[in-house]
Amino acid sequence: MTERVKSESPVIGEGFLTLREAAQVLRLNTRTVREYVKRGDIRGKLIGKRWRFRRADLDAFFENAPSQWAFNRKRSNGD
């Protein structure tokens, strides 16, 4: 029996999310995710003409997000 040795570096393409998938993970609109990328709050890369995100970068964004967001206006439904 031969035992497989697991590589330390991740396989390219493994763990990448599309813009829509990243928005679903964060429960945000895709436009909001793009705005956070533009501001430098979320790391993402354009590959061709498509955004790709690593789950670890989304987790880091979530962990570093302030506990209270300063919004210009408050939603009427309390969300």
SSE layout and pairing:
Layout: E1 16-18, H1 19-26, H2 30-39, E2 45-47, E3 50-54, H3 55-64
Antiparallel strand pairs: 1-3, 2-3
Features:
single chain; 79 residues; 3 helices; 3 strands
* Beta-strand residue percentage: 5-15%
Distance between the termini: 56 Å
Overall strand count: 3
Largest β-sheet summary: 3 strands, antiparallel
What does this structure look like?
The protein is of the alpha+beta class. The chain has a domain at 16-64. 35% of the residues lie in helices and 14% in strands. It has helices at 19-26, 30-39, 55-64, and strands spanning 16-18, 45-47, 50-54. Strand 2 (45-47) and strand 3 form a beta hairpin. Helix 1 (19-26) packs across helix 2 (30-39). The protein is globular. The model has no long low-confidence stretch (mean pLDDT 81).
In short:
Helix content is 35%, strand content 14%. With 79 residues, it is an alpha+beta fold. Strands 1-3-2 form a 3-stranded antiparallel β-sheet.
